[in-house]
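Researcher: Here's the sequence for the chain we discussed earlier.
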Amino acid sequence: MKDGFIKVAAATPDVRVADCEYNATEIIRMIHEMEAQGAKIMVFPELCITAYTCGDLFWQENLLEEAKVQLVRIAEETKEVDALIFVGLPLEYNGKLYNVAAGLNHGEILGFVPKTWLPNYNEFYEARYFTSGEHVDGTVHIDREAYKERYDSDFDDVEFDIEMTSFDEFEELEEIDDEDFGGENFDDEDLFDDDEMDDELYEEDIWISPNTIFTCEDMPKLQIAAEICEDLWVPNPPSVAHAFHGANLIVNLSASDEVVGKDSYRKSLVSAQSARLLCGYIYATAGEGESTQDVVYGGHNLIAENGSVLAESKRFANGVIYADLDIHRLDNERRRMTTCQFAPDLAPEGQDISYNEAPFTLENTETVLTRKFDSRPFVPGIKEERERRCDEILNIQAMGLKKRLAHIHCQNAVIGLSGGLDSTLALLVTVRAFDMLGMDRSKTTAVTMPCFGTTDRTYNNACQLSECLGATLKEVNIREAVNLHFRDIGHDPEVHDVTYENGQARERTQILMDIANQSGGIVIGTGDLSELALGWATYNGDHMSMYAVNSSVPKTLVRHLVRYYADTCEDQKLAEILLDILDTPVSPELLPPKDGVISQKTEDLVGPYELHDFFLYYMLRWTFPPKKIFRLAQNAFSGEYDDETILKWLKTFYRRFFMQQFKRSCLPDGPKVGSVAVSPRGDLRMPSDACATLWMKELDQIRI
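Model: Thanks. This is the structure I predict for it:
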């Protein structure tokens, strides 16, 4: 359970209708199967001990008694299993029958959760047999030893004969002293043998209430509540109240039959409820073995976390699905979202009720992760979704710029076009905004400013790109101006230090600003989110603009946006230019090339952007600590980067992120496009002089 991860499972066993012993055997077998896979939370379907489709057999007393016998058997035979297990059965309480979920842990029956909402429409007739458990709050007495003897016996029924003779011979009880036992020391406890003590221990009073939270003593942030099938399908599911009272994992024991299209609706319900409540959700439903007299059950199991479906079973095939839930991630998200105030005193009227706490224990072991973390979290892996997102982002960027241009009545835009990815994207966004406004693209001025590090490849791409897009190209060679500046400040141009590099960047920004003044336009910023996170920008150089369209687009996504434009522009020449730009190494081109080839590659200096974007996503979006981010990176980049490389650049990321906040504290305006942004007016309110010691100390503790 290290780092908040816990493996959970949803299981659909083979069942025989009304054959409790067979069903219990299958449940026990599957529990041990899930135990071997490391699952700590196991969920079975509704009424799985008897089967859901017993119909009027639910009125038969021997079926109800046998269900309790087999419940005790399941508890007994799984007492060594380190897990919290939920199984379903019918249970009589105060003369009424309830459809309940039983929670088991290390052989103990922790509590019964009755179903609240009973479907009694179409093919469902639950109200014929069961009573709603909405207001139930009491205890059920289970004589464990009696039921244990029942399933241990070779007989169908166990006779409990009591011989009544000789009782009239005792008129009174006499005090017993040691002399009556040969003078040996005698303790009152010796009056009872071990079997009699076990009888007392096995007599249990167990909570039955829909308002029960199962709390893990070894992982206090893990709090679990149960609802049953139809409970999820109503306007105000019990899980809403459960969440207000602390539950961050909901289990649902279900028996949902299959009709055309129902699987999609069911999946959307589970996904949406986990998103709405910022929780994990385990949905286990009935499958093959249930009666097919009128309907068919498909065993469509689902495991979701905060809106994402982590695991989904194949329908019409019984079995188990597993997922690694991240409880700390859910807890972090609830803490971050101020409108998600889950507290008992804030629950809606009628749900501000007291809850029973059912503590359980789990060994505090490390969860072996089977969950795969995407190495490019900003980029959808499915092509169709990636293309849809790219189009959406381009529109968000263009709409942001459109509003700014219209608001200030600006007819011109100025962009420093280097032939690299970022300035290419900025130009693509700008011409789209001009198209939206019905403005002439020639009012976009693309300025190329060759200097010491410019290569023919990037220069030619910049020129051809502006021509294809209909922008006005302006060339300003800044060599002479930069050398003059170096002479003015007494800098040796042969010393290729930070002054050498930043002098060029600031000269370019000055030119862009002045050209914008000449034309009555604004300077469009080109820097992206990844560069801002690392501070890879010249302060008051490329760091500054009048509207920064790329400011919340990470570098890994910039590439896909440009590729998407190339794939959809229907202009072969433009597509070829864009593809060549995509093939060009990322570089600020501030150092002289070697043999006409770019000599200064950004990723050689600050590290691979795919790593930094991964670090950024999990640090800002999910607020994970360094050790956890390192662990996830090991998972995501397995076979791509070794542990030493990941750790090296993770340290670089944290060091630069903290040191360079002063640049982010005065960023120009720009549109937010995703869940991570660093605008000082929006997502990131961070002091420029914050200390990184705590984070660097944790990184130094990582041993490879």
